[in-house]
Design a protein that fits this description.
By secondary structure, this protein is mainly alpha-helical. 62% of the residues lie in helices and 6% in strands. Helix 3 packs antiparallel against helix 4. The longest helix is centred in the middle third of the chain and has 21 residues. The N terminus is likely disordered.
């Protein structure tokens, strides 16, 4: 199934707005990933990139298999951002993936602190780095990190580190903050080098 999204990131919605939108999708029992994607997809691809990245730095990363799903979702969204597809496609099995709404609700409260911090530090700077043609650089980096994350599921903390890097990159793209995106790219290089040395 495909979800219509804007191909370009816009600063119209901050990180807190993304978290608020996720909260509106919670059902009584379990929340499906497809419902969350449909709810925030109208704002563009970048919020859909930030969602799994935030999840990776939350306690949800300890759920077996969850890290791999987040990595695949990040890679899928990033690839379609680079291709500038007008609609986001996700495989049916991913859209049907669900978690307890009560657990998601607890994690959302945890999300609000980093989201508030990101909204405070982001502003439009060096926008050329987050608009075509140079926007393919942070998008391509997110794609690469998304592919790496499932391979590191059994290595403690690595997925959370890479998730934090993707949050920085996504926040930069969401807010039109090229300086933050550049910072994320430098941190990514350092993080990948450090992880490579460990494994």
């Amino acid at each position: 199934m495909e979800t219509e999204t804007k191909t370009a990131s816009t600063p119209q919605s901050g990180a807190r707005a993304v978290v608020d939108k996720i909260e509106t999708t919670l059902s009584a029992d379990r929340t499906r990933l497809g419902d969350v994607v449909d709810a925030i997809g109208h704002a563009g691809y970048t919020p859909l990139l930030m969602l799994p990245a935030l999840a990776l730095v939350s306690p949800l990363s300890g759920v077996p298999g969850f890290t791999s799903i987040c990595g695949i979702l990040i890679a899928t969204v990033s690839a379609q951002m680079m291709l500038r597809r007008p609609k986001l496609w996700l495989p049916g099995w991913m859209r049907r993936t669900s978690l307890s709404s009560a657990r998601v609700h607890r994690i959302i409260h945890w999300f609000r602190l980093p989201a508030r911090w990101l909204d405070c530090i982001t502003r439009q700077r060096l926008t050329g780095l987050v608009t075509p043609p140079f926007s393919i650089l942070p998008q391509g980096l997110c794609f690469t990190l998304g592919l790496i994350i499932p391979l590191l599921e059994l290595v403690p903390l690595t997925s959370s580190i890479l998730g934090a890097v993707i949050v920085i990159l996504a926040a930069g793209m969401l807010a039109g903050d090229g300086l933050l995106a550049l910072t994320g790219m430098l941190v990514a290089a350092a993080a990948v080098s450090g992880i490579a040395a460990l494994v």
